[in-house]
Task: structure prediction
Amino acid sequence: YVPTFSHIEAIEIRGDLEGAATAWADACATHAGNALVHVKAADFHLRLRQDAATALALYRTVRDMPTAGREHVRYAQAKIVDLHLGPLEDEGRALVELRRLIDGFPGTREAEMAREALAKLKESRRER
Result:
């Protein structure tokens, strides 16, 4: 069974972002072990609320969730990297998270892109 959240998406479409945030929080509490619910909630906070800190916390929950599948973990880890390189502007943490992505998912497109990003980031830090 894969839960759907069309009722929350309808709240989002109506523009009630506070109501949607509450509904996603309730869904995460109700489905605490479901990685997909947390990913959808994190995506909501990042996309519509532009709340990088809340999205980061939810993506970390997915990454550390014992019941999460590898695809959800890989997606969450990539989003964590994106947040640190983007809105959170934390290059030091981005270095750590890039390495985690490379080590955790060798041979994937994400790991290869992370390897390239890590090299560029290290080079730009040396040039400063």
Observations:
- The chain has a mean pLDDT of 95.
- Residues 98 and 114 are 6 Å apart (CA to CA).
- The chain is about 75% helix and 0% strand.
- The two ends are 52 Å apart (CA to CA).
